[in-house]
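User: Hi! I have a protein structure encoded as tokens and I'd like to know what sequence might fold into it. I'm fairly new to this, so please keep things simple.
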């Protein structure tokens, strides 16, 4: 009997995983996961009624999710009873819990944002140019923001407290702190909450993101924070004691210009912290799952966004250590150290002096 080659198996599994991922997107955007987390197991008709969606689609989705192992299936009870579907504790964390670092529905949302733009990506790959963050839209914005939020809220303050010189600089009364590339503001808000005597300024080039960041800060009741709509090449409000760039340097079309502006915005003795992808120092083939994920983001999202700007350097998601060091040197920094922060998502922390 002829056996299927392993590569064919992998590609088939990839296709199935793509379909399952898009089904996760449906459950996330339609509110089905959130309703199941709030209500417990439901029959599909109840799920559809509570979310104002169509019963037949809810039935098919529930069965598909159970087949994929994402939902639990409970046997029907009584004559003519229907099977109920629910989420176990792990499923609640992965699909609905905005406080959990296992919250990965936004990961799928970000991938789906790129999938929707496949015709534009094909054109960019053929003709040059790119697909901008604006084209990717709110699914990309919220996907990245919601995926990173629990890391900033739950993990970042403790890690910074474990770096004594940074903790002291941030905790000084009147300390001036900038968060360049703040997106929806969750990192800025986390810094402001952890260091209430500091003045924290979030800066981002994307207008809709800044509007949401301002709303998030207001909702949180954070008063020592300001959100500014500005390009990273124009750092206002300094001099700053500490400037952060969280997972954005690799996206920037002009990273050296941004780092140069950041350096010029520093107070005497100020420091810069860059958190970016923990890319391997060189390509390995085949690579581990993290490196494959970074390349996936790069070909579908980050590189096309960067190349949508004229004369972009086109870094891409796979920003290796030597690239960060080169950009820092070209921007006038004399030293780049890696901070001892480990097991922080896909990311690595650099300190530029």
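Assistant: Happy to help. Inverse folding works backwards from shape to sequence: for each of the 353 positions I chose a residue that suits the local structure. Here it is:
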């Amino acid at each position: 009997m002829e056996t299927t080659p392993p590569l064919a198996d992998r590609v088939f599994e990839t296709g199935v995983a793509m379909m399952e991922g898009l089904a996760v997107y449906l459950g996330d955007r339609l509110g089905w996961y959130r309703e199941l987390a709030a209500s417990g197991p439901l029959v599909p008709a109840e799920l559809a009624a509570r979310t104002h969606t169509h019963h037949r689609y809810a039935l098919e989705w529930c069965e598909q999710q159970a087949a994929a192992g994402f939902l639990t299936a409970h046997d029907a009870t009584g004559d003519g009873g229907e099977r109920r579907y629910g989420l176990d504790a792990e499923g609640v964390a992965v699909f609905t819990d905005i406080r959990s670092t296992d919250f990965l529905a936004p990961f799928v949302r970000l991938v789906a944002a790129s999938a929707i733009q496949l015709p534009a990506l094909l054109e960019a790959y053929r003709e040059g140019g790119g697909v901008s963050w604006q084209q990717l839209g709110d699914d990309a914005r919220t996907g990245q923001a919601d995926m990173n939020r629990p890391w900033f809220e739950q993990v970042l303050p403790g890690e910074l407290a474990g770096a004594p010189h940074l903790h002291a600089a941030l905790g000084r009364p009147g300390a001036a702190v900038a968060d360049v590339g703040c997106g929806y503001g969750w990192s800025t808000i986390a810094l402001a909450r952890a260091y209430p005597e500091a003045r924290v300024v979030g800066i981002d080039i994307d207008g809709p993101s800044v509007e949401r960041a301002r709303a998030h800060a207001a909702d949180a009741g954070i008063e020592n924070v300001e959100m500014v709509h500005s390009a990273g090449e124009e750092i206002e409000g300094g001099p700053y004691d500490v400037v952060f760039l969280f997972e954005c340097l690799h996206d920037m079309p002009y990273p050296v210009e941004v780092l140069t502006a950041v350096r010029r915005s520093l107070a005497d003795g100020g420091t810069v912290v860059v958190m970016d992808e923990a890319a391997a120092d060189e390509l390995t083939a085949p690579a581990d799952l993290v490196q494959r994920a970074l390349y996936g983001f790069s070909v579908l999202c980050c590189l096309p966004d960067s190349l949508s700007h004229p004369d972009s350097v086109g870094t891409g998601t796979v920003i290796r250590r030597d690239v960060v060091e080169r950009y820092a040197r070209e921007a006038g920094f004399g030293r780049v150290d890696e901070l001892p922060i480990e097991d922080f998502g896909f990311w690595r922390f650099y300190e530029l002096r």
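A useful reference point when you look it over: The domain at 112-352 is CATH 3.40.50.150 (Rossmann fold). Feel free to ask if any position seems puzzling.
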